[in-house]
Queue: 2 jobs
Job 1
Amino acid sequence: MSVGRGDADPTRPESREVPESLHEDRGRAESFGAAARRYDRSRPDYPPELYDVVLGAHATGLRVLDVGCGTGIAARQMAARGARVLGVEVDARMADVARASGIEVEVAAFEEWEPGGRLFDRLTAAQAWHWVDPVRGAARAADALEDGGRACLWWNVARPHDLLGAVVDPIYRRLAPEAQAFSVLLGSTANPTPFGAHGALEALDHAPAFASPEVVRFAWSRAYTRDEWLDQLGTHSDHARLEPERLARLLDEVGRAIDSVGGSFEMSYDVVLVSAERRARP
């Protein structure tokens, strides 16, 4: 685990323009529900060390608002620690899967969601804040947080090992360069830190209601078989929006590439957590 202040963290990509307005692409932002159950079974969860920091040592009864909760992957992990989790999710199909696992969810875009006087100890967003307008989102987060509560926003960034990258990268360059350009799934060297973290840092840093944000990184890994990895690929918007024929060819070639390195692999991840404390109200 590594820790740094927001203004010292190297979050700005070095070689390509980053699409900071990705949240405006609503077709892409709301594309996940078509594969909600596959999303839930194939997407990775998050390491325990992350929740040690996000929830602290005494999570029982902690009031958590999970923004963009999706199918409830992170929400279930937090609920298992005793937190009382309410999800906010724009896609009703994703929300239905989360509810089936016991998570309470309200269907709304977070920028339009109304706290209704409710206050929370934590506001979380797991792999989702880049779909929220960072400025409006920071203001709504301030409305929803108790004084002294924290906004905790995180992303999983993959770090493929050299052998896997050597066989997979040429396939993407040839068949789907746009899917590779900023993909946290593929560990794009153009964007070693997810661009959503950059937008979150700037918005929280300029929001009077929040103290200076901090960045914490957690290294972890997960083993994948060929089929598990291919199952996950189609749940990412940069892959799901490819033409069906091109996606099918991409998956076929990636599958054969994984077979060529033994049919399974260990994927290293960095979880990048951006967090900031809600200042006391006047």
Job 2
Amino acid sequence: MPIKLIECPRDAMQGIHQFIPTEVKVRYLNQLLQVGFDTLDFGSFVSPKAIPQLRDTTEVLSQLNLGLVRTKLLVIVANLRGAEEACKFPEIQYLGFPFSISETFQQRNTNSSIEESFKTVAEMQNLAVKHGKELVIYISMGFGNPYGDDWNADLVAHWVSKMDALGIRILSLSDTIGIVDPKSISYIFSELIQRLPHIEFGAHLHTTPTTWEEKIAAAYESGCRRFDGAIKGFGGCPMATDKLTGNMPTENIIHYLDQKGIETGINKQLFAQSMLMAGDVFGV
């Protein structure tokens, strides 16, 4: 399977309190669309009260230059109403849903239990198939949680199998709070990829500045070929106890793959321009 790089400006932006002007978002996203990413996680259809930063997703979408790009669009949805809204737009290929195997986090994130969320996933899958979309399930807290909720590799496998039974074919395992070690990454990816070769497993890893390489290496060497990242590691999970924990920096993923001589399809010049632009967008 070829490498798929998913750039996640939505994840990077959503926690910023000061509203990023729509025109700034559009300019940045149009730049990212030229770089050569497989997918751009660009927005979400959730309550503006929950994530006010992304209340302009529809307006942003209407201004994206999609004519000559191969990059596909993904939006995050938190309930069936959001999925129905996203399905109205033919430009959107993927609907992403955060499904936590931590009961506490699922309640905090989508205000529903794990069992209720699974029923929502089943309804979303039917909706996605009907409208020619594909559902991407993020297994949140896929490597552990800070709440004391039960977690083990068998629990991960249990929910992955249930998603498989629904016909879902893209599952991204999320190290939501940046706590996972390389050994656990290797074990879980190796087991699942061997058991379910028809599923595309992704790595949505959060990291500190000193642990990124070992995490990418563990996932890649275990067969993972789908990687989420955010330029400069912007964003992350507010529940992480280490303030240095952020999204996996996209430039680090690219560096690792380049060192391995692995083709990424990324235009390096345009990516460098995107890095510069990101500093202005995020005010750093």
